[in-house]
Amino acid sequence: MRMKPSLTAEDARAIIAAAKVEAEKNAWAVTIAVVDEGGLLLALERMDGAFPQSAEIAFRKAWTAAMVRLPTKTMEDMVKERPALVAFPGQLRVQGGLPIRHGGECVGAVGVSGVASHQDEQVAQAGLAALAP
């Protein structure tokens, strides 16, 4: 039987804490979502001042990155070349979602919403740095 790494609740909290530091450093009110490899929510934090809809958007970005195992920016760019990709159900192809990889495996994803998409991704990337060895 194959053994596979997985995110823990502690990992999810560390990702959110690191992402939140980046957001606070830039005075950005965002929501940060972390999902497992199946797209199920592990943790979510909506910072004070983040608009309510950002919670759903952050989750959808994370879910999309986990399901396709690609950054949502990649999916956003792919739609320009292949508009039929829009028909895939449930995906949110907007920059700000990043898959989380460990040992060559996708173990989940982080999604951020609340500021410009490239800034959302900057916050998500800071979150991923928390898991770096």
Describe the structure.
By secondary structure, the chain is of the alpha+beta class. It contains four helices and four strands. Strand 1 and strand 2 form a beta hairpin. The protein is globular and about 35 Å long.
Q: What structural class should be given to the helix and strand makeup?
A: alpha+beta
Largest sheet report: 4 strands, antiparallel
Number of helices: 4
Computed CA radius of gyration, to the nearest angstrom: 14 Å
Mean pLDDT: 95
What is the strand tally?
A: 4
Low-confidence segments, given as residue ranges, are none
Biggest sheet, strands in spatial order? 2-1-4-3
- Beta content comes to 15-25%
Overall morphology: globular
Summarize the helix and strand pattern as letters: HEEHHEEH
**First-last Cα distance:** 26 Å
Provide the fold topology.
Layout: H1 9-25, E1 31-36, E2 41-46, H2 53-68, H3 72-81, E3 97-102, E4 105-113, H4 117-129
Antiparallel strand pairs: 1-2, 1-4, 3-4
Helix pairs in contact: 1-4
Question: Care to give the gist of this entry?
Answer:
This protein is an alpha+beta fold and 133 residues long.
